[in-house]
Design a protein that fits this description.
The protein has about 100 residues and is mainly beta. The protein has 1 helix and 6 strands.
Length: about 100
């Protein structure tokens, strides 16, 4: 996976090397546009860093063909895990779902 120059809900977005699939964090019950708010950036320009605020967001890391797809959308999500990790290497929970039909 390659990190792309984009963040959602204060977390990095990644693209698989072959393209067409993305790994991203999605906050529950929020619009995608809200995820690009500069106040969520830990090191955004003119923003007072508050890393603790990122751990207050319930959400999930997902793999999908579209950045920011929701669990109940028409876009296929290949797998997800509910977790508060800031980066994928910090994912610790085991509650997840993987689509094995693809």
């Amino acid at each position: 996976m390659l990190r792309i120059p984009m963040t959602l809900f204060g977390r990095p977005v990644y693209e698989f090397e072959g393209g067409g699939q993305y790994l991203y964090f999605r906050r529950k019950e929020m619009k995608l546009a809200d995820g690009q708010d500069a106040r969520l950036e830990e090191f955004g320009a003119g923003v007072e860093p508050n890393p603790a605020a990122l751990y207050e967001m319930e959400g999930y890391w997902a793999v999908s063909s579209e950045i920011g797809a929701e669990l109940d959308s028409d876009v296929e999500i290949h797998g997800y895990v509910e977790d508060l990790g800031i980066t994928p290497d910090q994912i610790a929970r085991t509650r997840s779902r993987v689509d094995r039909s693809s």
